[in-house]
Known about the structure:
two-stranded antiparallel ribbon
Amino acid sequence: MKAMAKQPNRRVKSDDMLSVSSSEELEQTIFRIGQLQTELEIATAHTNQTIEDAKASLKDKTTAINNEIKVLSKSAQIFFTANQQDIVPAGKKSRVFDVGEIGTRTPPLSVTVKNGQDVIEALKKLQEQLKLSDLLSVKTSVNKPGLIKHREKIKDIPGITFNQKEQFFIKPVHVPIEHLNETEQPA
């Protein structure tokens, strides 16, 4: 029986996999990734420029439309306020026309806090005096950087897991535009 010669490594192609079988092919693969990344950057820059151009061309038109809407709305509001009793049925806050609706509404009550620390101190005192418990809230959350810093002391607490895995990366050099159509790495 004759011994079979070892078959050379060959590239295996499929829809989502290509087998690199030599250092030369590895360099070519890294170069190709660089080409593709450059193409992607160019396409993204072109798309972003197209978007910016479209925004700029629409800016004047949208500004004019928004200004007209503002003027018409203010005019309608002035007329509505002066004639609300004649426009809106008794006991109602709005009226529906064939072309749309007009009216008033009262939004939910809102609160604004300025000088937050001073307000907190005043509310703490008031909360103690009036025996209230719902003027201030305290939020407690896990401080992950603190957990990492003290990992040896807390490693046995159930529910805490520390993870650190090595990650593969490819960082090709920037491929100039004139080399985008090359299929192999230049010598």
